[in-house]
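Q: I have 274 residues here and want to know how they pack in 3D. Can you give me a structure?
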Amino acid sequence: MQELEGKIALVAGAGCINGGMVNGRATAITFAREGATVICADIDAEFAARTVAMIREEGLSATSVRLDITDESAVTRVVDDIVEEHGRVDIPDNNVGIASVGGVTDLAPEEWDRVFRVNVTGAFSTMRHVIPHILKTGGGSIVNISSLAGIRWSGVPYASYYASKAALNHLSRTTAAEFAAAGVRVNLVLPGSMATPMVTHVSGLASAYSSDDVEGMMRTRDRQVPIGHMGDAWDVANAALFLASDRAKYVTGLELVVDGGLSLGVGAVHNSTE
C-alpha cells in the first residue's frame, strides 16, 4: 500500500531555479508517488508548474500555486484555497530556505532580517494557518526542513543561516510539544552536505571553502563526509516521507539528521572520490 494514499500535502519550495532536483521538488514527487495529492508551492509559479508537469507525466496528482512564504496574507489565501478544494491539509512540508555567507561582523543587518523572514517566519506562518485546519480533521504531520547547520558549525561563516535554522528547530520542537495531544506531529529533517542546486547558487560559498570554482568546492564537500560523498535531494525526500507517514505515528519533535555521518566528527575522508 502507498504510504500517503489519500493524503493532501502542501510542499512549499517545490520549484527549482535551474531545472535541477532540489529537496522540495524531490519531496513533492516522492509524496505523489506514495499516493498523496500534492500542492506544489513556490515563489516562482513557473518553477512550481514544472514540478507538477514532472509528477503528471507519471500519471500522478498535483497542482501548482505561487506562494511567497514571507507574505502571511498569501499563506492564508493558499491554505484556505486548499481546504476549500480538498477539505483539509494533512501534510504541510516546508522546504523553503536561503543562505547568505557572512559572520556577525560583516553581515548586513538587512540580510540577517531577510534570511530570518524566509527561514523562520515563513515556517511560522505556514504552521500558524495550517494547524487550525489539522485540528479540525483529527491530526496531521508537519515536516520542516532545517539543516545540520542549525546544531553545529559547518566551517562556513554564515551567521544568519546558523541562527535561523536553530530557531526553526526550537520552534518546531516546542510546537510539537504544544499540539502533540491533539494529534499534530511536528518533525524536522536536518540535511548535512547535499549536492543540490542551492549549494551552487550561494554567493561566496566556494571561496569560503578556499576553492576557486564550484567544482573544487563540491569535491571538498564530498571528502568531508565519512560516507565519502554528499547526499542528494532524494535522501531528504525519503526522510520527509518517513516523518509524514504513519510509520512515524509515534514520532514528534524529532530532528532527523541526514548527513552521511558528517555530524559524527570523525574527520575528512580522503581519496573518497578517487
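Q: Anything worth noting?
A: Residues 33 and 59 are 9 Å apart (CA to CA). The longest helix spans residues 109-137.
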